[in-house]
Write a structure and sequence with these properties.
Chitin_synth; Chs-1/2_IV_N; two-stranded antiparallel ribbon; coiled coil; EC 2.4.1.16; eleven-stranded mixed beta sheet; membrane; about 1300 residues
């Protein structure tokens, strides 16, 4: 290798504003109506759910202690004593504890798993303190205070929890009134205005002592003020605000507004202490409340001895329901936040739930009906109305309590009131990180904060490790932070239609990019765009009078003409096109084009004699050129280069991709929002015509609907397709990704994993390094799919082994993947193992399905059907091992057509089984469930609903794809090119050795040709004679013509000889003169040949340019280090081919053996199902229809169904995988719907949010807001939209550019030290 510059800093380590969416008007109206419906429904559910939870918690608390209830409601509705045992009392204590502590138990489990993996950070002590105070206060009120009060007073007292916030507000007013520099008159005026506020605050504060002063039969004189004060202090969200930034409460301020994420250590400590505090308070309450008969055994009985007939079990079921309700309410709140919607302030549970609860209690207490009392009696609970109804001064007491309620509702409204921001401001939405079940309304508040100031970069305070003596070093803190998109397409021998499609997409993107930069609206996503097309094998030899020269081939010529046609570029008066420049490069040549709207498009013409060809090496070219040369070789500081890398993206597309600008914008929005995403891919739609394309339309649909959506939700997408994916530059530049991607295959498995599916391998490298890959369903792209049977089979022959190889590689290295990638869990690894395992068993499962379907359809013997179906499949296996690919494909095509008819029999047999055994039979249930899930998935994708119609073609081709295609891909594992096995023989320099069967076929065809030629030989000879005779006649006619002009044959002959002699003399003179003038030097000749391609008829209209020396040096070094054409001897190539055959034999025989054993086992179990089957009755009285073997008639029978245990196990596992994927699909559709709602919100064409910003400096504010996204402590907020800030609280060693610069500096120092040692010696 040669010495290279900064561009080669990448390493491989050993292990040790959505804008203007293309939505139709009806879709926009439907989305707006759906959004309004969802908003109203969610608001209603939040208010009702929180109020119901509050009533249930207060019911459990007020029933802990027995009370004398002299009010009319109790006398009317509770005449019979409610049965209440000590176990029921234990259940009430346990229920309250469960409601409060269950979220903390979950958080302990989650955070402990993170701590086990080594994710540890300093504990936020102040946060832990206030949360523990809150838990202690709520437990004190629930276990000590509320049991001595009735429901109405409990509701009024619960409204007083913002007590500290009210006192803080009063003190702030007092501070303002006593501020120095204010006249005495103004101070007195402010004090008078503050008097009503102070009076209300004092009345509010009376909630801590009122009942003690009134001399009620109230024993919690100390517990009430202590519990109320602790709960009020613990409700820190009510009194922490933006004024607490940079103060002692700065951590609480950051947590409240989502500026800082609560780390795992803090979560674990907080949740564990809250559990301990709640349990301890409950134990003290049991002792202090004088439950003499209540023992530990009662708690064990209530918790572990469930009986649905007992009161205590019903109470615990109610507690479990409340836990689920709280999770649902928090989910709804997060959902609204993700929609950028917020509950209406005056209907938020914080504002109105105390009023609703108080109103419901008073209504029930004064209602003549006893429905509520009868329902509560089943739980062993009583509705407590007013134990002090006969006391005096009741009116005055309630008047004061009503003031509490009014102030509490007002204070709650102050906490949740909506703030309005300018459209150019970037907002963080956050939610309380803890859930308090005893007062759930406190956990349903969304706080918003505007990013309004710049926070220093994590590297600005670090020492720059770059070369300080570098005179070209630039440190620019104001470097452009706008996003840069490099659109990189790889092309080969595409057709005109495919080229037109990708060029049309590029031109649309060019127009969109230009219009955005022209408008420069603050709320629009703006980006810089540059296009690159890498043309593989774009040169060919052409014979010229001066010799053989290299010129662009016909495919590039067609591309150039098509480009001129679509851009409508015309030649100027000088006969050139100023917008087209040709440049010679070390890898071939380059065409630089300025598109109509101003975007530069670079077309790189690769010469396979100078540089490696194929897609992977084209990707290596643009990665190192754009990220290595453009970024790493730039003279900017590390901080600026890191900023460039974080805001630079590569859009990878194919030479036939079709997409709209909106598709790219959706990917950019996602990458801008979440910094941990290394790649985002869109929804790929296959286009073309024919049956094979119909099959692929349904296949692509279910793959995206289910598999990709499930991967996105439960882990990471495993494959980012190269036809439309957006990569983050800083992710590609990280260790073990870009550099490792340049690795050439050394082992047989490498040829399968690296070169057969380069997109999948690059995705695997990203995942193992810790980057997330996400799927954006709304980002649509189209690509041409194989239309022919042979082309389709060959494509999948490449894809299938590579996909399996990369998945197995990820599974085998799962520990590293889990440790590096937070999105990959052990459960996700288990899910992928199940998917890959059952995909390998596909041939056996489909084979047995075919056998038993034919048995049911034709009434044949299962052994006969097994033989009839086994023979063609075994014969195909032999063909795959012994013949060439064309024979294999021809046979597979014929068998696919035959088995399509067999699948009709399968359909009939399946329908018959469903009718006879009813839907509840396991197999019938699985089939019906699968059909319903597929149909529901199509309904959830209305724009793609038509794809469900192609399910018929997919069904008919199941044997073809799951049996013959699987076998073809498996047994042709050793074929590592994009063609047939004959290419391998050609590459090894040997003649392909034909198999015996193929030799027999060839000999037969040769014999037939000989017989045919025997009968046609005479005709050929006569034709040859006629040709010779015609030639002689033409010569005679020529001589006669000359004789007419006065010449004889001899003179004509002499004339001909004279002409030849003069020609020879002329050539000799030219030769002599050239010798005298000296031959041109070899260098000049090479230079002339080098520029010859620029003078061709189609390219001579282009300007000629010259590559810069720095870039020329870069390309030379890159080719020398990584991209030299691979040259190997025939012996080495034969060794590779033999290794691939050996690998194929090992894998193929193993999988074939497993499939054969599985198929045989299922068939044998079915043969002996009377003994080995599981007898199952779905429900009592179940009957099904069965054929009587004696009479041949169908009869109704009550016999149990006989189920094959092995087949049933397979069905259960497949159904489990399908259910997991269905859940993932539903969750992903919700996420997609949120994105659609955001697009509708930002529409301008339909009058939504079209008002311009009132701020004069919109662009400056937005720039500063975006810069905050990369602050040190801006990590993941708590909103459901998944905001993920830069990695704060971590060492700068996680910075990619910093790591690369540090490693390079260490290498430089090591070399310097070594040279010093050598100099001393």
């Amino acid at each position: 290798m040669t010495n290279v510059g900064d561009w080669n800093a990448f390493r491989s380590e050993k292990r040790g504003h959505s804008d203007g969416p293309t939505l139709s008007p009806w879709m926009i109206t439907a989305l707006q109506a759906a959004k309004l419906t969802i908003f109203c429904t969610c608001n209603f559910l939040l208010t009702i759910g929180a109020s119901f939870s509050k009533i249930c918690v207060l019911l459990l608390s007020t029933n802990i202690l027995p009370k004398q209830l002299p009010d009319s409601f109790s006398k009317t509705c509770f005449r019979a004593a409610v049965r209440r045992s000590t176990t029921s009392m234990a259940a009430m204590y346990s229920a309250l504890t469960l409601v409060q502590c269950f979220p903390d138990f979950v958080r302990v489990a989650q955070s402990s798993s993170q701590l086990w993996l080594g994710v540890n950070s300093p504990v936020l002590r102040l946060f832990v303190l206030v949360e523990c105070i809150r838990a202690l206060g709520l437990a004190t009120l629930s276990f000590f205070v509320f049991p001595q009060l009735d429901l109405a007073r409990c509701a009024l007292l619960s409204a007083c929890l913002p007590l500290v916030a009210s006192f803080q507000s009063c003190m702030a007013d007092f501070s303002n009134s006593s501020r120095s520099g204010t006249s005495l008159r103004n101070r007195l005026g402010k004090c008078l205005l503050m008097a009503p506020h102070l009076l209300l605050c004092l009345i509010f504060f009376s909630s801590s002592y009122l009942w003690a002063v009134l001399d009620r039969s109230f024993d919690a004189v100390i517990s009430l003020p202590v519990g109320l004060f602790l709960a009020s202090v613990g409700f820190w969200e009510s009194w922490i605000n933006v004024r607490h930034a940079k103060t002692y409460f700065d951590d609480l301020y950051k947590v409240k507004y989502g500026v800082k994420k609560v780390n795992s250590s803090t979560k674990f400590t907080t949740s564990l202490l809250r559990i301990i505090i709640t349990f301890t308070t409950m134990i003290f309450a049991v002792n202090i409340n004088s439950h003499a008969k209540l023992s530990v055994g009662n708690f064990f009985q209530a918790i572990f001895q469930w009986s649905f007939q007992t009161n205590y079990t019903k109470i615990l079921i109610l507690a479990c329901f409340l836990v689920f309700l709280h999770l649902l309410l928090r989910g709804i709140t997060r959902f609204l936040a993700a929609l950028d919607l917020h509950p209406i302030s005056f209907t938020h549970p914080m504002s109105i739930s105390p009023l609703i609860v108080f109103s419901v209690v008073r209504f029930v207490c004064h209602s003549p009906k006893c429905i509520v009392a009868r329902i509560l009696a089943k739980f062993g609970l009583r509705w407590s109305c007013d134990p002090w109804a006969s006391e005096e001064a009741l009116v005055a007491e309630y008047a004061v309590c009503i003031v509490w309620l009014a102030i509490g509702c007002y204070r709650g409204w102050k906490v949740v009131r909506q703030r309005y921001f300018e459209t150019t401001e970037e907002i963080i939405s956050s939610m309380s990180p803890t859930c308090n079940g005893l007062c759930v309304e406190h956990s349903l508040v969304i706080f918003q904060h505007s990013l309004s100031k710049i926070v220093s970069s994590p590297l600005e305070d670090e020492e720059d490790v770059g070369d300080l003596r570098d005179q070209f070093r630039i440190r620019n803190d104001d470097v452009n932070r706008s996003m840069t998109v490099y659109m990189c397409a790889t092309m080969w021998h595409e057709t005109e239609i495919e080229m037109r499609q990708v060029l049309r997409s590029i031109l649309k993107l060019d127009i969109d990019h230009s219009s955005r930069n022209t408008r420069r609206q603050g709320n629009e996503l703006q980006y810089q765009l540059e296009g690159h097309i890498f043309f593989d094998d774009a040169w060919e030899d052409k014979e010229e009078p001066t010799g053989t020269v290299r010129q662009p081939n016909e495919f590039f010529q067609m591309f150039f003409q098509l480009l001129n046609e679509m851009t409508k570029e015309k030649v100027n008066e000088f006969g050139t096109m100023e917008s087209r420049i040709l440049v010679n490069t070390p890898y071939g040549g380059r065409l630089v084009i300025k598109l109509p709207a101003g975007t530069l498009l670079y077309v790189h013409l690769k010469d396979k004699k100078l540089i490696r060809h194929k897609k992977r090496w084209s990707q290596v070219m643009y990665m190192y050129y754009l990220l290595g040369h453009r970024i790493m070789d730039s003279p900017l500081s590390i901080e600026d280069r890191q900023r460039m890398a974080d805001n630079t993206f590569i859009l990878a597309i194919d030479g036939d991709s079709k997409f709209e600008p909106d598709a790219l914008l959706r990917l950019l929005h996602l990458m801008k929002t979440k910094n941990d995403i290394g790649c985002a891919c869109g929804r790929i739609h296959p286009i073309g015509s024919g049956v094979m394309v119909w099959y692929q339309k349904f296949e692509y649909a279910i793959a995206h609907w289910f598999q990709k959506a499930a991967e996105h939700v439960f882990g990471c997408v495993l494959c980012a397709p190269g036809c439309f994916s957006l990569f983050r530059a800083s992710a590609l530049m990280d260790d073990n990704i870009m550099h490792k991607y340049t690795k050439t295959a050394e082992e047989p498995r490498h040829y399968v994993q690296y070169d057969q599916g380069e997109d999948r391998w690059l995705s695997t490298l990203l995942l193992k390094q810790g980057y997330r890959i996400e799927y954006v369903a709304a980002s649509d792209a189209e690509t041409y799919a194989p239309e022919g049977f042979e082309e389709f089979f060959n494509q999948r022959r490449r894809w299938t082994p590579s996909s399996i190889a990369n998945t197995v590689d990820l599974l085998m290295d799962y520990k590293r993947a889990i440790a590096n990638n937070k999105s990959i869990s052990l459960a996700y690894i288990a899910y992928q193992f199940m998917v890959i395992f059952f995909s390998m068993l596909g041939p056996a499962i489909i084979f047995t399905m075919l056998v038993f379907a034919q048995v049911a359809a034709f009434g044949a013997n299962s052994t006969d059907m097994m033989i009839y179906n086994g023979i063609p499949i075994v014969f195909y296996v032999l063909l795959c091992f012994t013949t060439e690919s064309n024979v294999q494909l021809f046979y597979a095509k014929m068998m696919s057509i035959a088995y399509a008819f067999v699948m009709l029999a399968v359909l009939v047999a399946t329908s018959s089984q469903i009718v006879l055994e009813t839907v509840v039979a396991p197999t019938s249930l699985f089939i019906v469930t699968m059909v319903m899930i597929f149909f529901s998935a199509a309904c959830l994708h209305p724009k793609e609903f038509s794809n469900i119609l192609y399910g018929t073609v997919f069904f008919l081709m199941i044997p073809s794809t799951y049996v013959f295609l699987s076998l073809y891909s498996l047994i042709n594992l050793n074929v590592i090119n994009w063609g047939t096995r004959e290419a391998v023989a050609k590459a090894t320099g040997t003649t392909a050795k034909k198999a015996p069967m193929e030799r027999w076929l060839n000999n037969s065809l040769t014999a037939l040709k000989k017989v045919f030629s025997y009968f046609t030989r005479r005709g050929e000879k006569s034709a040859e004679r006629e040709s010779i005779l015609e030639k002689k006649i033409s010569e005679v006619e020529s001589v006669l013509e000359k004789m007419k002009r006065g010449e004889t044959a001899e003179t004509a002959k002499v004339s001909r000889e004279d002409d030849e002699e003069s020609t020879q003399k002329l050539m000799q003179q030219e030769t002599d003169s050239s010798v005298e003038l000296k031959l041109p030097s070899e260098e000049v000749k090479q230079k002339q040949d080098k520029y010859a391609w620029m003078s061709t008829d189609s390219l001579k209209v282009c300007e000629k340019g010259k590559l810069k020396d720095a870039e020329k040096q870069f390309w030379a070094q890159l080719i020398d280090n990584y991209l030299k054409p691979i040259v190997s001897s025939p012996a080495e190539q034969k060794q590779v081919a033999d290794g691939l055959v050996s690998l194929r034999n090992q894998i193929a025989f193993t999988i074939l053996l497993i499939n054969a054993l599985l198929a045989l086992a299922i068939i044998l179990i079915q043969k002996h199902k009377n003994v080995l089957s599981i007898k199952w009755v779905p429900y009592e009285g179940f009957q099904w229809t069965k054929m009587n073997e004696m009479t041949g008639q169908f009869e109704t029978t009550a016999e149990p169904l006989k189920i094959d245990p092995l087949g049933m196990g397979i069905v259960i596992f497949l159904l489990a995988i399908l259910f997991v994927q269905t859940i993932g699909m539903v969750l992903h559709r919700i996420n997609t719907m949120l994105g659609a709602f955001h697009e509708v919100k930002n529409l301008y064409d339909y009058g939504v949010n079209s008002q311009k910003s009132t701020k004069a400096e919109d662009e400056r504010i937005l720039s500063k807001a975006r810069q905050m996204m990369y602050a040190t402590d801006y990590k993941s907020g708590h909103a459901a939209d998944g905001y993920n800030r830069s990695r704060g609280d971590e060492s700068s060693g996680e910075n990619v550019l910093y790591k690369l610069q540090k490693a390079r500096l260490a290498e430089r120092m090591q070399k310097s030290a070594l040279s010093d040692c050598l100099a001393e010696e």
